[in-house]
Design a protein that fits this description.
Elements: H1 3-23, H2 32-43, E1 53-59, E2 66-77, E3 80-90, H3 99-113, E4 118-121, H4 128-136
Parallel strand pairs: 3-4
Antiparallel strand pairs: 1-2, 2-3
Helix pairs in contact: 1-2
């Protein structure tokens, strides 16, 4: 990911996350932008140079056009090493063409080589397309939080 791509990521990532947290009812719409920005800055205090974090573009093989992004880190989970995906996003114009599956397969191979025993991620419950993709390629639910709005 070059500097311009990273600058765009820094603009869009917190906004998207904040909107998802508000839609999920975790944060109010008013507080979501500031909370998402604070979380983003906490996770990547040194930007692209933050130790242990990797932010990459996903590019189309035939012409190197950017089709999406992948952000992950390695962190201890119990007594094993876990590769945690903070975000994977494919531009809407390129979805359902196998880019996410290919990027995840490449990440899984890299994580295995790095000594990780598992790859984990969080997905919002309303993101049915992502859930279907993850299940199709072998990811399984390990936690499930359900809510029922009363207002």
């Amino acid at each position: 990911m070059n500097e311009a791509e990273y600058a765009r990521f820094c603009e869009t990532e917190p906004a998207g996350y904040g909107a998802e947290m508000a839609a999920a009812g975790e944060w109010s719409a008013a507080e979501a932008p500031a909370r998402a920005q604070a979380e983003f800055e906490r996770l990547l205090p040194e930007g692209r140079a933050t130790p242990g974090h990797h932010v990459r573009t996903i590019r189309r093989a035939e012409d190197a056009a950017v089709v999406g992004l992948l952000w992950w880190s390695y962190r201890p989970a119990a007594a094993e090493t876990e590769c945690f995906i903070w975000d994977i996003a494919i531009d809407p114009a390129f979805r359902r063409r196998g880019y996410a599956s290919a990027a995840l397969a490449a990440l899984e191979a890299e994580a295995r080589d790095a000594g990780a025993l598992q790859v984990s991620l969080h997905v919002f419950g309303g993101n049915r397309g992502a859930i279907a993709l993850y299940e199709r390629i072998g990811y399984r639910s390990t936690h499930l939080k359900m809510s029922k709005p009363l207002r």
